[in-house]
Structure formats: structure tokens, C-alpha cells
Design goal:
This protein is mainly α. It has a domain at 39-99. The protein is built from 3 helices and no strands. The chain has helices at residues 2-32, 36-61, 65-98. Helix 1 (2-32) packs antiparallel against helix 2 and helix 2 runs antiparallel to helix 3.
């Protein structure tokens, strides 16, 4: 239990330190003239990856390897769902170029 509490505290500290990174990504996307939804997708997927890694490591620390694998699978599926609008835009652009 102490390890999980320490991990949560470290995770929160890292999130606080990541706030400038998120602002910098948003600024870069705005300066490049790219649709802001791409930057949002990037930030969401990085967040899902970090949270998944933390959660699966906690599961493994408690001897729940099967549960850790399921958490990782759920995260992968979540990333696919989050990035689906980007895939739609890419396919639409490719279709326009081919037409």
C-alpha cells in the first residue's frame, strides 16, 4: 500500500511538471497552423500511456499479471478510439488526393 501511495504522489508530481510541456505543444500546434485536434489527440494519448503504465505496474507489483495485461489492452483500445478522428481526416485527405 505504501508503494502505491508513493507512486501516486510521484505521478502527481510529474503531472504538475508536465503542464508547461502541454502548453508548449499547444503553442507549437497553433504556430504551425495545424488543426488543434491533432495536439489534443497527442496529449490525450500520452496521458493514457502514462496512466496505463502506472496502473499496470501497480497490478504487477501486487502479483496481478493477468489484470495488468488487461489494463494494457484497454489502454491500447482507448488510444485507437481517441485517435480515430485523426485516421478519418487522413483517409479523407488521401481520398481527395486520389480523386
Amino acid at each position: 500500500m505504501i508503494a502505491i501511495a508513493a507512486g501516486v504522489m510521484i505521478f502527481i508530481a510529474v503531472l504538475i511538471q508536465a503542464a508547461p510541456f502541454v502548453s508548449e505543444i499547444k503553442g507549437l500546434v497553433d504556430d504551425a497552423g495545424i488543426d488543434t485536434s491533432y495536439g489534443i489527440i497527442l496529449i490525450k494519448t500520452v496521458g493514457v500511456c502514462a496512466l496505463c503504465q502506472f496502473t499496470s505496474d501497480c497490478c504487477r507489483d501486487n502479483g496481478q499479471n493477468s489484470l495488468a495485461s488487461r489494463v494494457e489492452l484497454a489502454a491500447k483500445l482507448t488510444i485507437v478510439v481517441i485517435s480515430f478522428p485523426m485516421f478519418q481526416k487522413i483517409l479523407a485527405t488521401a481520398a481527395e488526393l486520389l480523386a
